[in-house]
Specification:
Shape: elongated
Largest sheet: 5 strands, antiparallel
Number of strands: 7
Strand content: 5-15%
Radius of gyration: 37 Å
Length: 356
């Protein structure tokens, strides 16, 4: 019996040891497979030609988005990539306006979708939706009906017509004012977005609009400049970038050849440097962010919600007063009495006296 028990215990130990061994083996195989996948993941597919250029838009955008230094090194570094997109790190692009057009067709332009402004008819419709004006329109209709009924068409339309004219005038003036403010706001935004910056093209430094930048341009950067597009660092002197506009964190990031990728929309916090543009417009994270912000979600700001609440309350008070006046006018119309308010007031004063 003791021997049987010992044999059973030894069998249990052997099974436990085998189970642990299998788990360790499985974990080791899983680790090796993961390492192999990582190694295979760094293998870069050969660049696919894009028209006159040796690399396509998708491969450039993927490298910029992932900040993949390994891919950049396999392309031959900054100079190798510059050769692929037919530019020079010292002098920039050579060519005329046709060269810029070809690059815009191949890699996109440095613009992004902007929300279109509302039309004048839209502002008229929004002005019409005001609760106070709706109450006034109802009052105008009631006044027209009662005035024409009691005094005839020749003289009965004065009050209701006057209210209608004032309401239409208010709607038109409010819509015109909002429309002009909208146009001014769009013009100010356009001027704010149209940044002027230095660019090296054909060995010369020119000051151009940010919208004229294309892939392959060489851009010098200094303190206070906004990074106009996605790019790769060519040279730097203690270059530090403020990426709070993209990440939301006020953290200064130092850039060098170990971390050469620059994101559009960031600001140069310190130092100076030179970059080669590799991504523009909607093909950058900044462009996607601006396109998302430009979409009209229809959501109201907290201030608009509060103002609408105040306007609704005022409208309700006005509607209550209007209904009270309407009831009095209807009573006067059907009873023929012209002193209904004084009769109600006198009757309310006589009741306490009679009670005494």
């Amino acid at each position: 019996m003791l021997d049987l028990k010992k044999d059973e215990e030894q069998d249990k130990r052997r099974r436990m040891i085998r189970a642990h061994g299998q788990l360790i083996r499985a974990a080791l195989l899983f680790k090796l497979a993961g390492q192999r996948a990582i190694v295979l993941g760094t293998t870069v597919a050969p660049p696919s030609p894009n028209g006159d250029y040796e690399i396509g838009l998708e491969q450039l955008a993927s490298m910029n988005r992932d900040h993949n230094v390994t891919v950049l090194q396999q392309y031959g570094g900054v100079k190798g990539l510059a050769k692929m997109i037919k530019t020079y790190v010292e002098t920039g692009i050579y060519g005329d306006e046709n060269e810029s057009s070809r690059r815009k067709n191949a890699f996109g332009s440095n613009t992004y979708p902007v929300k279109k402004g509302s039309s004048f008819l839209r502002f008229l419709w929004e002005a019409w939706q005001d609760l106070t004006l709706i109450i006034l329109i109802i009052a105008a209709v009631a006044s027209l009906a009662l005035g024409i009924k009691t005094e005839g068409l020749e003289e009965g339309w004065y009050d209701g017509g006057s209210i209608t004219f004032v309401v239409l005038l208010v709607i038109f003036v409010a819509a015109t004012s909002d429309y002009r403010q909208s146009l001014q706001f769009q013009n100010l935004n356009e001027e704010k977005r149209n940044i002027k910056l230095e660019m090296i093209r054909g060995g010369r430094r020119n000051k151009v609009s940010i919208y004229e930048i294309v892939v392959g341009d060489v851009i010098p950067l200094k303190i206070g400049d906004q990074v106009p597009a996605d790019g790769i660092l060519i040279s730097e002197l203690s270059l530090a970038i403020d990426a709070s506009s993209m990440t939301g964190e006020s953290k200064i990031v130092h850039k060098d050849h170990k971390s050469p990728f620059l994101m559009s929309g960031c600001e140069v916090a310190d130092g100076a440097g030179t970059m080669m543009v590799t991504g523009v417009g909607i093909n950058t994270e900044w462009g996607l962010l601006m396109a998302t912000i430009s979409e009209d979600t229809g959501e109201e700001t907290p201030l608009q919600v509060r103002l609408n609440g105040v306007a609704t309350f005022i409208g309700i008070v006005g509607l209550t007063v209007a209904l009270f006046v309407l009831i009095i006018l209807l009573i006067r119309f059907f009873t023929g009495s012209k002193n209904i308010p004084m009769d109600l007031f006198s009757s309310s004063m006589e009741r306490p006296v009679l009670a005494k």
